[in-house]
Every structure is written in structure tokens, then in C-alpha cells.
Records
---
Amino acid sequence: MLGISDVSWRLAGGIVGLLGPNGAGKSTLIKLMAGLLRPSRGTLRVLGASPFHDPAVRRRIGYAPEHEATWDELTARELVTAMARLAGVPARDAGPAAERALAQVGMTAAMHRQVRGFSKGMRQRTKLATAIAHDPEFVLLDEPLTGVDPAARHDIVEQIRQLGAAGKTIVVSSHVLYEIEALTSDILVIYRGQVLAEGNVFEIRNLIDRHPHRIRIECDRPHALAAALAVEPHIARISFERGGVTLETREPDRCYDQVAAAALAGDVTISALSSPDNNLGAVFEYLTGDQGARR
Amino acid sequence: MKPENKPEMPSRLDTLRALAGVTWIRMRRGKALWIGGMISVLPILHAVLRSSLVRGGDRDVPASELAGSITPVLILLPALFAAGTFADELESRTATYLWSRPIARAAVLAGKLCTIVPLIAGFLIASWAAASAIGGHAATPLACLALALGGLTVSLAASAIAILSPRHAMALTISYLLTDTFVGALPFSIAQLSITFQVRTLAGLGDAPAVGAPIVALAVLGAVWGAIAVWRIGRREL
């Protein structure tokens, strides 16, 4: 199985977002950096050494996996304490270190409860605590915002930012662009095991915005609405379906405004408005020229 | 985040203690310990029923018969404790937490066995001692030693099987140990490869009781299974 096929990447520091659709190879790359996997070809060095072969490097790495499973029979404090001890924190200091880490992620009140009763947000926070309790220099967080409610998401984003401000190098993976945008402007876009783009999030955003954006409008008079918009130069294509019309545009923001104006002017009642392309997979397939994979 | 002391590489002893402690807490709060306890009661129940069925005369239960009733415990406990623990760690992918730490993967194996083996040995010896007492015998030190060494060897085999095939760990472990019991009962030299045969011989319940040879045989069988477990855990990917 080919997880990562051609990644050449030098990490400078700060918070770096690892962005890509599901199955792109983000978790594989993070596992390689955490020392869980051994590269079958090429070299991977973290802090100057191979994390798979050199345990001393893994002491300087904090890792929170993507999956939710932990040792559910343990309390949050017991879990984080055990992880800190296994990372080299002396037994007498591991408990206080765990309590500090749990306090940092807002889990002090629940730290004596067993993990099996935790919500997704609490599990994500506890995982974050296991990753930072031993004060690592390099923190790898695999999809830390998956499945959490907006309030927990805000807190976790803030905690990751604080870690970055404290001088840690942090790699955060996500398949959702706005999650990464909330954390950092420095991103690496990965797709099908290869680096697609690297750099500032705004440059990536510009690339993504070049992708023709589809807008599906369900309304009572789709032909009237389409006629009003057909003259606009940014409209690349119009197609009719039962009870609606789909527009393809290169300027989505402008198009949304004009749809609203045309509906008002033509007395068109819009019952639903959606964007079938609102996922990174479709955008990445467009950017890589992989048109055949698109619907 | 500033721990009072910057972390050093964890010592082997610290690693083993931490892993053994976590394994103990998980087993204590889970169901396995209770189920293991109930399985261990089976030889005692057998001895009670057997001696109560005898009306008058000699109520003693032959040691060879008791050995037959302890064999299922020797099969089921390692499948439950050792195979179950390692399979769960790999199947649920919680092993990723351990493998991202600065510890050798072999230490994970050793740390968990530090809890599992004494538990299995304790259950076996307690069960044997109680059943023997009810059956009219005293549990000999050699029999206890045989059960302890047997528990260790079978735990190593169960761990290796779980690491090789976590999805079917319990079924494969039980199948292997049933085969082992069958092979151990054969009147050929192949019986020497059987863990249960060596345990019976060391406990003085075989056709030709011995001490040195079964200890060496159990050590070799344990070493082979241990080597397989260490080799596989070092290469396993999640």
C-alpha cells in the first residue's frame, strides 16, 4: 500500500497545517514523523534523527493520534500521567505534569473521571494533554478538531495557538480548510500521497478559488433565473435539473450576490441553495487535472 | 508546560513499572479479571462435586483427574489475559500511544507480561491448591512451579499469536493450546513439543516425572514464542 509517495518537505517551525482530503496521506505522514512507521524508501529526519529507529528523538515529540480509542478504563489523570512517565518524566513529577497539561486543555474538573464516559471534545482535549504533558519540542496533532462542538473547537484552537506562541513546532492535520485557516497561515497541501502546494494559506486559497464553483439553486422558475444570470461573464456553464438550475462560476462571491438580486427582480422563489463542490476532494482533483475522477 | 524536571530517557524499570501499573488498572476495572476468576473456580467445583458424589470410603480425587480439570484453566486464562490484552491494544490502535513514546517495543511486551504472568500463575496455583486440598492432596511445590512456568510459557505463546493475528487472537490461541494438549497426550516423542506435556511432567503427573528436562523444555518453548513476539512487535505497523 502506498501511503506517501513523493514528499520532500523541510519544516521550519511554528504551527504548520497539513491539509488534504480524507485518504490523502496526512495520517501516514504524521505517523512517519512520530516514529510509528518506517519509510520504505527515502529518508525522514525529525530533529536530526530517524524517529522510528531513535527513541531519544521520540522523547522530544508529542503525538495525538486521529482515532478516539484510548485506555478507557483509566481516569484522564491516570492516562496522562502514564503517558508522561513513558515519555521520560520521572514518576514523582509525572502526576503534577499531567495535572498541568490537563489544566492547560481545560480538563481539570474532569480529570478524575474515567475516559470511557467522555464526549468527543473531552477525548480530544485529553489526547492533546497526553501529547504535551512531557513538554515536547515538536507536537504532531492528527485531526484534533474532528467531531468536536464549536465551543470545544474554539478552545482547542486557542490552546494550539498558545503552544505555538510558546515556541513549539506544531503540525496539525485536517481535511477542512477553515480549521487550518483558524490556526495558521503556513500550510502544506497533500493529496494522494504527494505534496500539492506548500506555503501561505492565502496563496493556496487563490489556487482553490480558480476552481469553477458549482452552485445549485432549487426554485420555482429556474429558466427565468438562468436567463437573468446567463449574460454575466463569470458564468461558465448553466444546466437545468428537475426543480432547479446549476450554475458554474469562477467568482462564487459575486455570483451569490447576483443570484439574490436576480431572484428579487424576477420574483423567483428560492427554496434551497447549495454548493456540490464544497469539499477539498473536488477542488484537489481539479487542481491536479484529475478530471476523470470528478463526477 | 514546564515539568519540574525536563524528561530524560525513561529507565527500563520505570517503563516496566508504568506499563505493568496501567495493565493492572485496566484489568482490575475491566471484565477480564472477573471472568478469569470464574474460570479458575472450575477445578475447585470439579473437586467438590467429585468428592461429594462418592458415598463413604475414599473421597480422594486422583491427582491425574485434577490435572485434567486444571488444563482448561491453563488454556483459557492466557487466551483471555495475554492474547486479549495484546489483541485489544493492536485492534483498537491504542498501541500508537505506546509506540510514539521513547521506549522499545519489546518493553511494551515485557511490561504488560509483568502483570499478566503473575496473575495467570496466581490463579492457576490458587485453583490447583484449593482443588487439591478438596481432593485430599497437598499441592506440591513442584506442581506450583510447573503451573507458574507453564503460565509464563503459555502467556508468551498467546502474546505472540495475538501480535501475529490480533483479529483472531483468542480463537487462534485456544486452538493452538487445544492442539498442544492433544499433541502432549500422544505416545510419541513429538509430545516433547507440548507445553501442557512438560507442565504435567514437571508437576510429577506424567508417566516419567522429571525436573531438569521439563524446565529446559519450557524455557526453550517460551524463548521461541518470546522471540517471535519481539520480532513481530518490532515490525508491526498500525
---
Amino acid sequence: MRSWYFCEQEYWPAWERQPNNPRISAPSGEVDPKVAHKLLNEYIEECVLCDKLGLNIMVNEHHASYTCMSVSCMVTLGMLATRTSRARLLALGIPIMSRIEPHRVAEEIGYVDTVSGGRVEIGLIKGSPFELFLSNSAPADSNDRYWEAHDLVIEMLKRRDGPFSWEGEHFNYRYANIIPPCYQQPHPPLWLTTLNPKSALQAAQLDYVVAIVGIARAARESFPVYREEYRRVHGREASLDRFAYLGYVSVAEDEDVALERAGKLLKFSEASERIPERFVAPPAMLPPEVEAGMLQEGRMRTHRTKTLPDGTPMSNPPTPREQIINNAMFAGNPDQVFEQIKEFYDSVGGFGNFLVQMGGTMTHEEKKDSISLFAKHVQPRLEELTTGRMA
Amino acid sequence: MSIWERTVPEIHGLPKGAAIDVSGVKVCVWSKGEGRTLLYLHPGSGLHDHGDFLDALSKRYHVIAPAHPGFDGSQRPSAITSVSDLAFFYLDFIEQLDLRNIVLVGSSFGGWIAAELATMAAERITGLALVDPVGIKVSDRMTRDILDLFSIPLYDHPKHLFHGERRNTVYVDYPRDVLVRLAANHDAFTRFAWSPTLYNPKLRERLHRIKVPSLLVWGEEDCIVNVGYGKAFSNLIAGSQLVTIKSAGHYSFIDRAPSVVDHIASKFL
């Protein structure tokens, strides 16, 4: 099992002051540049610590958000490429449904992969639909545009006979050409996040790592679909390294301390869900039948899990113990965290990548302690668990 | 004109519609009344709620109300993606139906299409009425002229489109097929007007081409595009007349249908 540390690089000091407006229209004046400077540098130091302790690193990006100050995966990874030496560096992901210049995306991947000596891994994802309100990319045809951008980026990464021309439905380039090309040939390993079996099918067909972000039900639905499709298309079993699951993680020597930290971590979840309702579902992306339901009800629907697996409604907001039951969170002393991960691992047929999200209002010291305990006492046992089953 | 076998939606308050094929595009059309031809272009929500307005118009005109490609059951070929494309489509529509001496009326988004069409086809259109149209940029780049309807959930649109009681419209008791059609219409509207939001940067410089008698009708309580925008719009169409309607919002043709029809009828006999 490979584990990947992940923190959203939150600007949490604004959460209480703007509890209902943390994204898109979040007032920029709430952010103190000096505080942001301190926080961002702490986040980078946490990643450097992970590198020293043998953990890999995952970054993401969001836009105009108090819940994530990373505005570009490749900018963050560009810094980490020179501050780390061993860790694999995963961008999960680059939201090319919103990013209007796939050419630039490909260039940045080539650059960072070269600087890092081939340690980059890439998820070309659709991204949060509500961020179309920022990029102004059209919601209509966004799926088609995503796939054209995807194909273009992959073509740019793998072709060594550039330049070539691209005259597509959505993008047009005279000279598609990146210098430097990727250090890893033909291109870095590729990932895809999914919440539904349909995109799990596509991930299997493309031989990408399929990543499920914190929703156990989605893993239970999508992993078997992926395995079956992988077998059908590639004629062999998908190895465990093709599967990834992201969970909230809090580790401490003492269970009560870990749960206290877990409560701070869940503040991230609470903040990120409080997106203003008007941005939740941009028009022209969902089927009209689904939109009709929202029109009738006079409210937006989200995919957020509100119940425990047995149907019991969760507290509002959910507690750490409830999120542990839901396999969205793994918290406790190192033994407990390992057992929680193993139980979930066994229930979904295994996975070879565990994405370890920490953050929320956890302090820098708390995160460093949690990372260290995870690396020293949990990670070796996870590696043992998957010995011989990774590609 | 060939009859298309696809089901034409039944829209409350409108007579039975027909499906026709215009240059390979199958569109639904509703028509009623006798007299001078009045071609009506609907707003972004489609032809829903148009019964009173079109009925009143049909007492004085031969009203032809098509659903734009992508709306209310009409097909949208993949090549029709912009309002200018819609205007080109209506050039075909007018020629194929051999419409002449047309009073062209458009409201809101339909007013935008009508304005674009009027800059293209001078011969067959002999009167133009734009009811609370969008479609042009007036103010500086830091000032939004037109309320961004796409940042507002569809269920909250009545609060912004209407004046008076209709502002409180809720959809809980609406039939399923109507709800799906309204949602699909909004998707089509989004496709055509997402960005730049509800205008074509080139239209303003083309409005000088409109030489036919023109009327702009504006709800005084319009909070999507205010009366000041209407004055600017009117100033760009030589010889046009702007009239305002009291106690009417952006959908003035629904809020005060008789007044809007009276103004159109007194301008275009």
C-alpha cells in the first residue's frame, strides 16, 4: 500500500466569520495575507516531513475558496519538486473541465515532471461544477469539452514528434508542442476520481487508477465494476495499485486526543459543504429530469451522505465516531487506525493507494504528530497488507 | 412544410401546436388568429405562461409562435450554439413559411434574437417590438447591466422575473412533464447565453441596421434589465419609441399582458 498525505491548504480563520459563504463569492477581504503566508508555508513543511518519513504527497486545487488555497496543483507540486526527493507527487486533480487552456496544463505537467525527476502522477478530473461560475467555462457540453481537453493533454504529453496541430470542437492550436516533455515516458501515471460506476468503467478501460474520495458506498459500487471491466478489456486482473481511497485521518497516541483532532478535521467538511445554494448545481449539467425535481422541491440536491450505513440519520454536523462508522474517517491510536483501514480494505476487495487527508482546524503541530505516527506505526502494516499484490 | 411525427408538447393556454421541418430542423410551432403576421420569439423560459398574452395578440394578428431550437420540444442541431445561429435559423423559417409584412415581437431573450434578426432581414420584417429585451452591453466593463439569471436557481427565478403576486410562484404542484420541460428550456437558455452573460458584444454596433418602425416596451419594475438599459437600447435604434408599463417586471408581457398588447397594436396596425 502506498499512502499519500493530503491537506486542502485551508484558510480556516475565515470559516467562523463567513460561515455560509466559504466559496465562489467568499469575500476576499477576510483573508489576511500574513496569516495566509504562515499557513501555506506550514502546509509545505508538512509535505516535506512526509517526504522524509516515506509518505507520498497529493495536492489538489480549488478556486476562490476559504477551504482550499491551492489554486493550481502544478504550482504547489512545482515547489514540492525541489523541496522533496523521494515522494511521488500526485495532482488529484487538475480540473480540465474548467481550465480553459489544456495546452498550459500539459506544459506545466512536463515542467514539474522534469524538475522532479519523474515523480509526478496526474489526475485529469472534471472538477467541482460550481467552479464553472469562476472560470466561465460553459456548463453545456462540459462533458464533451472535458474529454477533448483530456485527449489533447494526453496527446501532448506522449507525443515526441511535436509540434502537431489540433483543430477540435472546443480547442484549436496551430502548434501543440511542449518543451520540456515529460521525464516519465510516455507520460506520468494517470488517475481518475469518480463517484459513480459509469466513470469507473472509463477509468478501467483507460487503465487509470480509480480514486474514490471519502464515500464508502461509491467504492463498494465502483471497485467491482472497475475490476470486471478491467478484466474484460485488458484480459488480466487489475492489481491493487489501480485502486485508491481517500479518508479523513487523525492519529494520536491516545484515542481521546485523536478524536479531538478528528473533530477539528471535520470542520473542513462542514465548511466545504456550506457552499451557497445558488452555486451547487449549474444549469445544463444534470439531466432535466433531475433538475425538474429540484425545481419542484425548491432546493438543490447534493450527493452528501446524511445517514449511517444502517439508515440511521447522522448528527448535524456528523461526529467523528459517525464518520468512522461510515468509513469516511479513520481516527484513533495507531492500532485503531490500522484496524479501521483494514476492515474497510477487506470490505471493498482491497486497494493499493490510501489518500490520507488531514487539516481542518488541526494545528501544524497536531498534523505533524499525526503524520509521524501514521508513517511510523500504520504505514508499515499497510505495506505488509498489500505485499505481492501491487503491480 | 412537412409534418413531423414527433409529439408537440401541449402547453397550457396555447392552441394545439404543429411540428414542421425548417431546413432540416424540426421545430414546434403554435399559431392562432387572423390578420397581419406577427412572429413571436419567446424568452429563455420558453412558451410557458404565455396563454393570456398570445391569446390577446391573436385577436388582432395572425400570431406564429415557434419554440426555438432546443426549447419546448424543438430539436437543436449541434451547429446551432449561439443567438446569431438562432437568428440565421429564423431567416430560413421566415423564407420557408413565406412570411411577409411581419411584425416581429420578442421578449427578454426572444427580444435579443429578434434584434439580431432585424439587423439581418430588412425586407420581410416591417415592424419590430422588443419587450424587455436583453442582448447588448451598455455600461463599462466593471458594471453588469443584466442580472445573471444563471447564478440564480431556477426555482427562484419568479422572484426576479415578475412583479406582484407571481413573484411567489412555487412549483410543488406542477405536473412532472411541465417541470421537465421548464428545466430543459433553462438548459437550452444556458447554452445560448451563459457567457458573455445574456448579450452579444457585437450586437450593439449592428443595431444601426434596423430601419423598420420599432417599439421597445419596458416594465417599470424590471430588475433583470432596468428602464435605463431600455433607454440606452432604444437610443441605438434610430426612430424607435420606448414605452414603459407600470407595475410590471421583466416579464411585463405576463404581468400586464393587455397593456403590452395595446402598445404593440397601436404602433403596428
